[in-house]
Design brief:
The chain is mainly α and 184 residues long. It contains seven helices and no strands. Helix 1 packs parallel to helix 3 (59-101) and helix 3 runs antiparallel to helix 5 (134-145).
Length: 184
């Protein structure tokens, strides 16, 4: 839960203040979308299951409730990490854009480089074009690397290294099913 909280705080820090002309630029849109998604994950209520027909709480129902809590928290952590990685790519785009604009290159060359940076932000899985600025290639690789399997494996490794018990952690398929059945 500490990591979930830390990720949420980092996403909240990404609040650039674009001019009206820049407001709809791709990187700014990505960052606004990430903030909105992160807030939705944070405020989404826990889906309460109606109590069982019997008046007494059995050990089995407590165990099922605990499993639901673990799956819900794992899904929120997973969603937040995925949002965070996309936000980081957006920040890198923004930094690349600022670098281009401050480079002093002729306006026509800046326009080409800015279009290139925008294309790379959304070109997941495409071969990088030959005209690059330093940050473009890392943006493309970063976005392409934001996969469900990578995020899940990173969590497993981090938790294992921290000495956390992993026996009750849900598998990736269960987390993805939970996310699909509980949209935020």
């Amino acid at each position: 839960m500490t990591e979930f909280q830390s990720i949420q705080h980092r996403i909240a820090e990404y609040s650039p203040d674009p001019s009206p002309d820049e407001y709809f630029e791709e990187g700014y849109e990505v960052l606004r979308q990430c903030r909105a998604e992160a807030q939705a994950v944070l405020i989404a209520p826990y889906p309460v299951e109606p109590p069982e027909a019997t008046s007494s709480i059995s050990g089995d129902s407590e165990k099922r409730q605990l499993q639901r809590i673990i799956v819900d928290s794992s899904a929120r952590r997973f969603q937040s990490k995925k949002i965070y990685l996309r936000a980081v790519a957006g920040v890198r785009w923004l930094n690349a854009r600022n670098f281009i604009l401050q480079s002093g290159k002729p306006l026509q060359q800046q326009a080409v480089l800015l279009q290139q940076a925008s294309a790379n932000l959304h070109a997941v899985g495409m071969n990088p074009p030959s005209l690059q600025i330093v940050a473009d290639n890392s943006i493309l690789k970063e976005l392409a690397a934001v996969t469900d399997t990578r995020i899940y494996n990173d969590f497993r490794q981090t938790d294992s290294e921290a000495g956390y018990w992993l026996g009750d952690d849900p598998p990736l398929a269960t987390i993805l099913d939970w996310i699909r059945s509980h949209p935020v």
